[in-house]
Specification:
The protein is an alpha+beta fold and about 150 residues long. The protein contains 4 helices and 8 strands, in the order αβββββαββααβ. Strands 1, 2, 3, 4, 5, 6, 7 and 8 form an 8-stranded antiparallel β-sheet that branches. This is Nitroreductase.
């Protein structure tokens, strides 16, 4: 089991500023070409919907979510629920989320960071890092494959 973490204060503050914009239908991109969505997932304890802005990774026709801050609340909720909704520009899509095994997650992270992911600094690896380093990082930074409408 991975260690439970909490997002840093600046991410929490940024989320509070970003959520109203995304709810209003403003299409935001993370740094570069990483689209931002509102991820809404059922709380694992409360059962209430929990919403957080996230950035998706789009590679080879697939969409992924990776957690730069480790096993934070939205990750634990998504692990429990297995599905969520993504909202962007007023469009709502329900998706299944499958957590990738460590090796597959490492491959996704490695390709993404080599492709210029601006959030790479949070994973503490570089494009030149070995695959073993990506596997180490994948153990504490869950990656989910998002699969079509539910």
């Amino acid at each position: 089991m991975t260690k439970t973490k909490k997002a840093p204060w600046f991410a929490t503050l940024g989320n509070k500023l970003t959520v109203p914009l995304l709810r209003a239908g403003v299409k935001l991109n993370g740094t570069g070409n990483y689209p931002m969505y509102l991820l809404t997932v059922r709380g694992r304890k409360s059962g209430q919907p929990r919403t957080v802005p996230i950035v998706t990774i789009e590679r080879n026709g697939n969409r992924y979510l990776a957690s730069p801050y480790g096993t934070v609340a939205w990750v634990r909720n998504l692990q429990a629920a297995g599905e969520a909704t993504l909202t962007r520009g007023g469009r709502v899509e329900t998706v299944k989320a499958r957590e990738l095994p460590q090796r597959e997650a490492a491959l996704v992270l490695q390709a993404d960071i080599k492709g210029g992911n601006p959030f790479a600094r949070y994973y503490q690896v570089t494009a030149e890092s070995s695959f073993e380093e990506f596997e180490r990082v994948a153990a504490s930074h869950p990656v989910f494959l998002l699969q079509g409408a539910v």
